[in-house]
Amino acid sequence: MNNTAADLSNTVNNFIVQHSSQINWTQRPALEKWAAIEILGHLTDSALVNLHRFVRCTYESGFTLTYAQDEWVAAQHYQDADITQLLSLWQLLNNQIIMILNNYPPHRLDAMCNNETVEFLAADYVDHMRHHLDQIIELKYAT
User: Fold this and answer.
1) Is 44 exposed, middle or buried (0-12, 13-18, 19+ CB in 10 A)?
2) In terms of pLDDT, which residue wins out, 143 or 22?
3) Cα distance from N-terminal residue to C-terminal residue, the chain
4) pTM given for the model
5) Which residues, 6 or more positions from 87, have their beta carbon under 8 angstroms from its beta carbon?
6) Other C-beta atoms within 10 Å of 84: how many?
7) Mean pLDDT rounded to a whole number for the chain
8) How do residues 90-131 score in pLDDT, each as one tens digit?
9) CA 96 from chain center: how many Å?
10) CA nearest 133: which of 102, 91, 84?
11) More exposed terminus of the chain, fewer Cβ within 10 Å: N or C?
């Protein structure tokens, strides 16, 4: 789990340092598509949900938590968010996830959460994040 935590840390920090200041956060690539700020909002929601999952799965078996991503993004009005605050929130939530993953009880790595092992969910969380950060980076070059 420490490798996954290191991957997460590197992914977040590299994005902040290398890309975040160069993004046009509010431009939509198409009418029905999220702007970069909404993608980051989605990643913030994902961090919130996964933080909850990782904590609960340290002591609870069979825990399930899902969310309606489009509805969450709309309800939180990420399009109108302050990007500096949103980036900070996203980074802080991920720092807490990193803390949890670095200290995850080894005997709970195979615990089932959302019908997957915690170990799988952690790696999938990083892959999901990278996918969406790549979308944001592509928007940077499309403008």
Assistant:
1) buried
2) 22
3) 38
4) 0.94
5) 16, 20, 40
6) 9
7) 94
8) 999 999 999 999 999 999 999 999 999 999 999 999 999 999
9) 12
10) 91
11) C
* Identity at 59, one-letter amino acid code: Y
Percentage of residues of the chain with pLDDT beyond 90:
82
d(CA 25, CA 38): 8
In this predicted structure, the answer to whether residue 49 has a pLDDT above a threshold of 70 is yes
Joined together, the tokens standing for residue 143 give 């403008």
CA 33/CA 50 separation, integer angstroms: 24
DSSP 34: P
For the domain made up of 2-111+135-142, the CATH class stated in words is mainly alpha
90-100 core/surface letters (b: 16 or more CB in 10 A; e: else): bbebbeebbeb
Q: What are phi and psi of 112, to 5 degrees?
A: -90, 130
